[in-house]
Design a protein that fits this description.
It contains 7 helices and 10 strands. A 5-stranded mixed sheet has the order 5-4-3-6-7. The model has no long low-confidence stretch (mean pLDDT 92).
Length: 215
């Protein structure tokens, strides 16, 4: 019987655990870094590895998109600050892509353990590809986990960020495969009066409990 302890991890709706760390842009107090902005915290297994290089470059190439959506990026791996700087320099020299966002040097694995990024079934010394979407008040809103050998989907990361922000701004929900510009789902009625009002509206009525509208 396997008595290995399951690593703890924050859950959706939890307040993002705070921490201090050294990064490629200097010391960081995570709660202060968030500072009323959306934040995406993502981990990668190791510097100077092929899949991680494509992923980090993908985030860097989309920096303008994240800036436009008022979202800060924070990378992490269980490597030293010297390794991070050397990797950033290597990628810039070879591809012209600069990682401007901070990358946490988590050599003691403290942040990885705090966020459940260490999955013993995959590795006890390398963080899996975790992605935490954190809102401006510091609450975790969405979590993605990928294994070491499968890269993330940047289109999906961008889609869910916009979906979360749009849902908050418009008090709605998103249907399957929703993308910006498509109709959203209106919350179901809570009274008979609301049901009748909905039937008289210009909503796209699939049924009384499932109605869609354009934004």
């Amino acid at each position: 019987m396997n008595d290995q302890t399951t690593p703890s991890m924050p859950r959706i709706g939890d307040h993002a655990p705070d921490f201090k760390a050294m990064t490629t842009t200097g010391p960081m107090q995570f709660s202060e870094y968030i500072n009323n902005s959306w934040t995406i915290l993502f981990s990668h297994p190791a510097d100077f590895t092929p899949v991680c290089t494509t992923e980090m470059s993908g985030f860097a190439l989309e920096q303008k998109f994240f800036d436009e959506h008022k979202t800060k990026l924070v990378g992490l791996s269980i490597d030293s600050i010297h390794s991070h700087i050397a990797w950033v320099n290597n990628v810039k020299k070879n591809t012209g892509v600069l990682f401007e966002f901070p990358i946490i040097a988590d050599i003691d694995m403290s942040v990885s353990k705090l966020y459940g990024m260490l999955q013993p079934g995959e590795s006890e010394t390398a963080a899996v590809r975790a992605v935490f979407f954190i809102d401006p008040i510091g609450k975790i809103r969405l979590i993605m986990y990928y294994p070491l050998n499968v890269g993330r989907n940047m289109d999906e990361i961008k889609r869910v960020l916009v979906a979360l922000q749009t849902a908050d701004q418009n008090k709605c929900a998103m249907p399957l495969n929703w993308t910006p510009g498509e109709k959203v789902i209106v919350p179901p009625p809570k009274t008979v009066a609301e049901m009748l009002e909905r039937e008289a509206s210009d909503y796209e009525m699939v049924d009384f409990y499932l109605a869609k509208r354009s934004l």
